[in-house]
Write a structure and sequence with these properties.
The longest helix is centred in the middle third of the chain and has 43 residues, at 130-172. The protein is 56% helix and 4% strand. It contains 18 helices and six strands. With 415 residues, the protein is mainly α. The radius of gyration is 30 Å and the shape is elongated. It folds into three domains: 3-128, Arc Repressor Mutant, subunit A (Orthogonal Bundle), CATH 1.10.10; 144-227; 244-413, no CATH class. Helix 1 crosses helix 6 and helix 3 crosses helix 4.
Length: 415
């Protein structure tokens, strides 16, 4: 609503005390907040940009100091020139912004604006809506992160299912079950289409993708058993093929190593190390063929035992501990990324550097160490980025971290 004042009236006499931004907020940070939520207030990009330009013309102190009110007094024709807009376009934007409650127009009887008359474009109304807009921004941020998480999990399912289908086609390409899974996989929307999905639709698709991937893994296991031989590159389950890990955990029972040394100890090569009971220090420093081979030696029940209660809860919902697959561990690690408010970019960087398997193992270690009685992890996101940097520099000792977790679990369970 346009308020009209006469030039002779005292414009400040009846005005209420102007609101200010909460402590710690400044004009520019609030402008960015409004720009982020503007599309959800029915404001188009062009009108939102106009509002931001107008708000930036105000004095910063007017937003945070009592007794002052952020406002723009320039005439409409002058503002149109400054903003490189036609008079008609500026009027349209101003009307839209006023309907949305982002500005308030106060004009004199002849439509003029001036500081002396207390007329112009004012922003006190939008400051009054700070709590509402800030809550909306937090809600949208949570939704964006959940959408990123769901797209990441769909990517995990896609990657796993593609690998499983390659193996299924090698041994049973004519099997009707394989063909049905392949057809359903081919019908999945492309990755770029996921961005246009609503959150509910994306969540439903992720569940369907997970179910299809689990069905493919089950079929692969069935064919493996029927053929009585392992399929090429088969690593569906976490295979417990070595007792080396438990032996190495007892290699130095009286020595308590610092948590930092366990997590960021120098590796002798770029590949993970595997434990060897015949080595003098409990480790064989020679690199093995691949990280997946090394990870497979851990065994599902042992890995479940080392996980945090929260991660165990999710893993239990996927399968019994002895039947867990690496797909389940990666899925759970991504879920904990969301729960711990770790920025998706930190997880993406870890996967790109270490591969999804080792990144999931890093998340398991990080999650379990959040409650370490000596050196708990305060910032999970920062710690994950630190683990990624250490990996790239050859300084991440995942096996040492697992040994440290095992030592802690044994102490906790000791009578």
């Amino acid at each position: 609503m346009v308020q009209t004042f006469t030039a002779m009236a005292d414009p400040f006499r009846s005005l209420p005390r102007s609101p200010i931004l909460p402590y710690g907020w400044q004009r520019d940070t609030f402008i960015h907040l409004v720009e982020r939520v503007a599309p959800h207030l029915g404001i188009g990009r062009a009108a939102a940009h106009t509002w931001a330009r107008l708000a930036s013309m105000t004095r910063p102190g007017d937003w945070v100091e009592h007794g002052r009110e952020p406002s723009v007094y320039a005439a409409a024709s002058e503002l149109a020139k400054i903003l490189a807009l036609s008079d008609a376009r500026l009027r349209a934007h101003t009307a839209r912004l006023e309907r949305a409650g982002l500005i308030e127009r106060r004009t004199a009887a002849n439509g003029s604006r001036s500081r002396h008359a207390g007329t112009g474009l004012f922003f006190s109304g939008v400051i009054n809506r700070f709590s509402e807009l800030n809550a909306l921004d937090a809600q949208l941020t949570t939704a964006r992160r959940r959408a990123i998480y769901l797209r990441g999990q769909r990517s995990t399912h896609w990657r796993c299912l593609r690998q499983v289908l390659e193996q299924l086609h090698d041994v049973a390409s004519q099997d009707a079950r394989v063909q049905a899974i392949a057809a359903a996989f081919a019908a999945w929307p492309r990755a770029d289409r996921l961005h246009a999905m609503t959150l509910d639709t994306l969540a439903a698709h992720e569940i369907e993708a997970d179910i299809l991937t689990q069905a493919a893994l089950d079929l692969l296991e069935t064919l493996q058993k029927s053929s009585d031989r392992p399929l090429k590159n088969e690593r569906s389950h976490l295979q417990d093929t070595s007792e080396d890990f438990s032996l190495s955990c007892d290699a130095h029972p009286g020595r308590q190593r610092p948590a930092e040394e366990r997590a960021f100890g120098r590796r002798s090569s770029g590949s993970p190390q595997t434990a060897n009971p015949d080595a003098g220090n409990g480790f064989d420093t020679r690199p093995i063929a691949s990280g997946s081979e090394w990870l497979g030696q851990l065994g599902p029940e042992r890995l479940f035992w080392l996980a945090s209660p929260e991660m165990q809860f999710y893993l239990s919902g996927r399968a019994d501990p002895q039947c867990l697959r690496w797909h389940d561990v990666i899925w759970t690690a991504e879920r904990r990324v969301l729960d711990l408010s770790i920025h998706p970019s930190a997880w993406s960087s870890a996967c790109a550097a270490m591969g999804p398997d080792c990144a999931a193992l890093a998340m398991l270690i990080l999650d379990a160490r959040r409650t370490d009685p000596v050196t708990p992890i305060i910032s999970p996101g920062g710690y994950l980025r630190g683990m990624t940097r250490a990996w790239l520099q050859g300084d991440l000792n995942l096996m040492g971290s697992l040994i440290g977790l095992s030592e802690r679990r044994r102490r906790e369970e000791a009578p």
